[in-house]
Design brief:
- The protein is of the alpha/beta class.
- Helices cover 34% and strands 17% of the residues.
- It has two domains: 151 residues, SPOUT methyltransferase, trefoil knot domain (Alpha/beta knot, 3-Layer(aba) Sandwich), CATH 3.40.1280; 85 residues, tRNA(m1g37)methyltransferase, domain 2 (Trp Operon Repressor, Chain A, Orthogonal Bundle), CATH 1.10.1270.20.
- The chain is elongated, with a radius of gyration of 22 Å.
- The two termini are 38 Å apart.
């Protein structure tokens, strides 16, 4: 899979891309990340990529000319793959979207900066717009790295355990169950006995119930769309879950 990333600060990607799982994915030749500096497609002496907004107001707006020129030069006109604009006004990124993006052979990511990008980029160049959360960052570089990371770990052979993505938080509609490793006791805190029992059926049952418990405690809003069995519902109802009562999303401090 290939990512083409269009950014004013492509150098910030190198350290993260050359570490851990992303480094492994690239060494396996299942992931390519091509970084493009938008300034390379400017035509003026100062390599200007932004200007003041029409109508007044604070901040600067990224100009359409270098963005269109960069994307169309690399991807063709019209672009040969999905072009994702990273913006706080986009749809919220989640694991389901990560799985859907992992099905493509090539994706382009446009990293916004300053106050915004010219709306014509969103309307006539980008094919999608994604946000990684209900907050505002300085630019789209961090969101781009989040998406590359989330998608790359879903590609074949990238993770040591090929089934790991299926058990991750959100993949099943629930938060993931707790994990423990050696030693069996640390500062008086013991690993749950069931995990040391060797009884795989009981371990699977415990993990499912702990995933349900954790989701009910921290993200009860997810339960309304999760695939729940009768046993799941019985367990949740014992915790106080009422499936017919709408649950608001968790409040943020």
């Amino acid at each position: 899979m290939r990512f083409d990333v269009f950014s004013l600060f492509p150098d910030v990607f190198h350290e993260y891309l050359n570490s851990s799982i992303l480094k492994r994915a690239q060494s396996l030749k299942v992931l390519e990340v091509h970084l493009h500096n938008i300034r390379d497609w400017t035509t003026d002496h100062h390599h200007t990529t932004d200007d003041t907004p029409y109508g007044g107001g604070g901040g600067m707006v990224m100009k359409p000319e270098p963005l269109f020129a960069a994307v169309e030069d690399v991807l063709g006109a019209p672009p040969s793959c999905p072009v994702i604009l990273l913006t706080p006004q986009g749809r919220s990124f989640n694991q389901k979207i990560a799985f859907s993006l992992a099905e493509y052979d090539r994706l382009a990511l446009i990293c916004g900066r300053y106050e915004s990008v010219d709306e014509r980029v969103r309307q006539h160049l980008a094919t999608d717009a994604i946000s990684i959360g209900d907050y505002v960052l300085t630019g789209g570089e961090l969101p781009a790295m989040v998406i590359i990371d989330a998608v790359a770990r879903l590609l074949p052979d990238v993770l040591g355990d090929p089934d790991a993505p299926q058990d991750d938080s959100y993949a099943t509609g629930l938060l993931e169950y707790p994990h423990y490793t050696r030693p069996p006791e640390f500062r008086g805190w013991r690993v749950p006995d069931v995990l040391l029992s060797g009884n795989h059926a009981e371990i699977a049952r415990w993990r499912r119930q702990e995933a349900l418990r954790r989701t009910f405690t921290f993200r009860p809003d997810l339960l309304s769309t999760a695939a729940l069995s009768r046993d799941d519902l019985s367990f949740l109802e014992a915790l106080g879950y009422q499936p017919d009562v709408p649950i608001p999303p968790p409040t943020q401090n």
